[in-house]
Amino acid sequence: MHLEALIAEDEPLLRQALVAQLQRLWPELDIVAECEDGAAALEALETHKPDLAFLDIRMPGITGLDVARALQRLSPHTEVVFVTAYDQYAISAFEQGAVDYLLKPVSDERLVATRQRVLARRQSGNTDPSVLERLLQQLARQPAAPLAAPPLAWITASNGRETRLVMLDEVLYFRADSKYTVVVTAEEELLLRSSLRELTAALDANSFRQIHRATIVNMKAVAAVSRDDSGRGVLRLKQRSETLMVSQPFMSLFRGM
């Protein structure tokens, strides 16, 4: 049976290892996208609408669980296989919910078993999207796992020759600029010598949300989110006149706002 899949894993070596395993143990599976973060996974889902998505749960910023929550709108027929490090509660929830998962490091035996279950469900037509929805609701009721380190409270950014200390509460949004990041406050724009991807892992996910592959916004700075005449998401800020585009795959992250 020919199927298409995407892989979302933020660790390059683990991503490459899983790709190699799949090519060896599931050669008829066509890997249409290899994503380094949740943002790329959302865009790949909308573009490819694959049969399967192998999602690392604990990616920085937009997690594998966030991507899974967006499936119903972006690609409702995509089946999820979660990839996780040891987390006994999550594993128990996956098993009770009949949702496939792979435990890092992924063993050949486990991957073959997952392949067999996926193919059996496909052949029988027994794929129920509500199973995933119930699992996500169950996981959402649990307290979040503690962070390995507290989120950033301030950053240092440059304005010409001057280096400034900027509190994160002052930042309205971050915008990618080649290998650097533009820091936008109510009064000015500064340059941060880190990539947007590096920054994502250190930000408080409760306050900062990615709305585009090139933009992370401080939710406290948002006045409104709407759609323009073409259906694109538009975000209006409280303290600046410009509006920010919300990529279509990221609109699902604003449900309930």
Describe the structure in your own words:
This protein has 2 domains: 3-140, Rossmann fold (3-Layer(aba) Sandwich); 154-254, Beta Barrel (OB fold (Dihydrolipoamide Acetyltransferase, E2P)), CATH 2.40.50. Helix 3 links the parallel strand 3 (52-56) and strand 4. Strands 2-1-3-4-5 form a 5-stranded parallel β-sheet, with helices on both faces. It is 31% helix and 32% strand. The protein is elongated. With 257 residues, it is of the alpha/beta class. The N and C termini lie far apart (41 Å).
Beta-strand content: 25-35%
CATH 2nd-level architecture of the largest domain = 3-Layer(aba) Sandwich
Structural class: alpha/beta
**Unreliable sequence segments:** none
- The number of helical runs is 7
What level of helicity do the residues show?
25-40%
Order of strands in the sheet with the most strands?
Answer: 2-1-3-4-5
Main beta sheet: 5 strands, parallel
- Spell the H/E element sequence: EHEHEHEHEHHEEEEEHEEEEE
Name of the CATH first level of the largest domain? Alpha Beta
- Distance, first to last CA: 41 Å
